[in-house]
Amino acid sequence: MPYLPIDGLRLHYRHVGHGPAVVLIHGWASSWRMWTRTMARLAQAGYQAVAVDLIGFGESDKPGDGWYTLDRFTATLAEFCNQLNLVRPALIGHSMGGAIAFNVALAREASAIIAVAPVVTGELSLSLHLLLTSPAARRLFRWMRQQSFFSGLGERNLIAAPMLFHDPLRRRHEDFQRTTVNSAVGSLRAVVTSNLESRLPDIGAPTLVVVGGRDMTVSPNQGRLAAQRIPRSTLVVWPDAGHQVTDDRGDDFDALVLDHLRKANHERDTHLHRHRTPKDHA
Prior knowledge:
By secondary structure, the chain is α/β, with parallel strands linked by helices. It has helices at residues 36-44, 70-83, 96-107, 129-133, 137-147, 167-177, 181-192, 220-229, 245-248, 250-274, 278-281; strands at 3-6, 9-16, 21-25, 48-52, 90-94, 112-116, 207-212, 233-238. The protein has one domain: Alpha/Beta hydrolase fold, catalytic domain (Rossmann fold). The protein contains 11 helices and 8 strands. The radius of gyration is 18 Å and the shape is globular.
């Protein structure tokens, strides 16, 4: 399995395909595996799909909870792109990964952004601010791990254990088991204490925001806010989808991704053609 050393930590990632780079960033308590189907579709369509396990999740290293801030996640992703020479990649992020994708795009140029159920202001549908500052937070997270609580968070069924035969739920359960209490608490605190609203107008990349109308984890209004603030943005709301839009509407989501990337590439090529000098045509 490929790893990159970044600031003394090992970052695990997976890579398929060749062509323009697309970096996929998972959400809280997840891993690169949430993108397996989408990566295959991207590779078939002529893209280089690169998905990471964020620090604290999956097969990547898991430091203490003091490490986790949105800026550290961003710096790690920027250095990851530098080391792999991923120039102007498209960025796809889910939930916490959506916030990270926005922040990366503010720090370096991106060719396109697709944010799925993104967190913008740090507000979640479940009030976790008191939980994160409570002395009992770690004990509660240990109990949640034992009960598979977060495997189904944001779905119609909050307790997912009876449904773990279902592949997406089993994957979420397994990914949550790979976290530590430090990485779960620290990264969630990083999300709820960050607010990107005032900076979103500075994002120049064409952006697609996708939200589920039945999202019980991150309010669809967070995505609506992002689409309002980002100048070149499009909002898609699927009323029947929950927080895990990529699972609920898998084929539709992949088609939407490919269409947005195609339009972004066409827009870029048209812009370059219009701004060529006579010497460029010679």
